[in-house]
Amino acid sequence: GATSHAVENEKENVNGEVRYRCNIIYTLPRNSFKVVLCIDNAEVSTGKQAMLLKQMETSNVSFDVRKLQVGDFVWVAQDGNRELVLDYVIERKRMDDLASSITGGR
Q1: How far apart are CA 71 and CA 57, in angstroms?
Q2: What does the alpha-carbon distance between residue 104 and residue 106 come to, in Å, rounded to a whole number?
């Protein structure tokens, strides 16, 4: 299969303000990309959490530690110098932090 690329533009008027929405759809051919788990650097900042990196290495999971704008873990497909975020973003929470997020509106 060939790589396909489609761009869909929509123009909308919201309360007198013109906004443009652009949806870009990529199809990557099989075996043309590498799937990598991106891990937020806050997740590996302590010794206990650093064990996670050893587990990734032992399990042969391709990973990259970086500052993420959303979530704690994000799967991406790397195709040359382009990265496409895949369908799942993971936010890890302790139970007390989850309760605090819900009651505090985070």
Answers
A1: 21
A2: 6
User: What is d(CA 2, CA 9) in angstroms, rounded to the nearest whole number?
Assistant: 23
Question: Tokens 């990973």 map to which residue?
Answer: 63
pTM exceeding 0.70 = no
pLDDT score for 14: 66
Average pLDDT (25-36) is: 83
At position 59, the amino acid (one-letter code) is: S
Confidence of residue 50 (pLDDT cuts 50, 70, 90): confident
The residues annotated as belonging to the active site are 40, 43, 72
Query: With 0-12 CB in 10 A as exposed, 13-18 as middle and 19+ as buried, what is 39?
Result: buried
Torsion of CA 74, 77, 80, 83, to 10 degrees: -40
